[in-house]
Design goal:
Helix content: over 70%
Number of domains: 3
Structural class: mainly alpha
Largest sheet: 3 strands, antiparallel
Oligomer: single chain
Strand order of the largest sheet: 1-3-2
Order of helices and strands: HHHHHEHHEEHHEHHEEH
Strand content: 5-15%
Number of helices: 12
CATH class of the largest domain: Mainly Alpha
Number of strands: 6
Amino acid sequence: MKGIIGIRVIFFIGVFALLSGILLQFDNDINYSQQDSDIMSESMAKESDEIDERIEYSQNNDQSDNLIFAGIGVLFSLLLIGLSFEFLKVLILVSLLIPIVSKRNSAEDDILNRGRILGYLEANAGINFTALRDGLGLANGVSAHHLNLLESNGQIISWRDGKLRRYAISTLSQEEVRRIQNPIIGTRLAILEVLGDSGNMGISGPEIRSKLSISRQLLSHHMLELRKYNLVSLVKESKRPRWQNSNKGNELLTISKKINISE
């Protein structure tokens, strides 16, 4: 999966900056307290020496604070983007938690979990990471670990869908993958649902508009696109044609519903 090295580099930069700032601040406090006590113990010490020490202490403190804030900022940014974008959350989990998870799990548990994931994906092609994780009751790290391993072995495929990361078994045909990767959504999905409910009798354009409360122009636009991909067909061609879903349209409607339900 692309980006793993980049995420790890960013993470270690954040950790390094944070730890460096903490150590610098700790070392600065110790040195200042020692030097301050030495100056006070010398009766001939000059006031300018104490001022120089305070200036140096303040500068070192500023440097340590900058490192700490930079480290926290980097780590917080990783956390924030992981919470906002599922596909980036998967990438972060794969980058940071897999080395830990892979050492803790036994071989028997690994085989069992991967079998469960494969079975779940076979029944729910196109499901996103969060829905799959919740459906199987697995932890984030465990899910990311096994999904990454299965994908590396060529047993499953994944793709980015907006903010989500979706998965399916690799034995699907190219046509099945294309349909899953491009589910019908929004108004076009609603049109296919209305046509699906109409059965073999079909339904006219004005009836579709009435059920969905959309304009004639908007319906014409979406019907043109649905016809372009052979998702709808004519039952009766007349002044008021009646429409129904084609076999391809019904298949895609089923896939789209399953993907929406899984979320």
